[in-house]
Amino acid sequence: MPQPDPDNFIAPPCNEEIKIVFQDEHILLINKPTKLLSLSGKNPANFDSVHYRLKKDFPSALMIHRLDLGTSGIMVIALNKKISAKLNRQFSERQVKKTYTALLAGQLTNEQGQIELPIAKGEFPYQKICAETGKAALTEYQLVAHEVFQHNGQEFPVSRVTYHPHTGRTHQLRIHSQQLGHPIIGCDLYSSSNDCQGGTTEHMANRLMLHATSLEFNHPISGERILATCDCPF
Length: 234
Known about the structure:
The chain is built from three helices and twelve strands. The protein has 234 residues and is mostly beta strands. The strands form two sheets. Strands 1, 2, 3, 4, 5, 6, 9, 10, 11 and 12 form a ten-stranded mixed sheet that branches. The protein has a two-stranded antiparallel ribbon with strand order 7-8.
């Protein structure tokens, strides 16, 4: 059976605009919309991205980190190579604190906890949990509220959680949510058929219910501790 080719993936069109939350001569803080690539893909059809759009007005803009296609929320952008190096160092030394909001299928029983499961590259586009080849991945979570989610005239129990990832592995929050037994609503890769009475959690929403709500780091020039936030849209 042929495996999916990453070069053949075509991202859906994104008509939402990038919102600039803050800017100075060194950095940009933006609110990335859902369904927008962070970086343009190899396939020419995937030219549209955060980087592609920002380069029009900020030709020296450099990406420091990425958010998944479906994830919305706060990102920091460097406006020159010197700033890029300083910010990249903070990310690599784990001086940056990130917070996400997610809606998970079902009701969590624990009010808080940790998910510590190593993540390895799987068959595209998947990642997998693997003790032998995986890299360490740690996610803290706090239950915010049990809620009711409307889908096709039915009501489903969901949990609103706050995630604090200590590592930045690809798909970390999505696959850790699945391993917790409560996949993120709208996730197209790590869904479940057990929570939707015959449907899947992927089709319960028209977007991935994952939003980067805050980013805390040191300003690369002043050293001031910055807490950048973006309100959750769901």
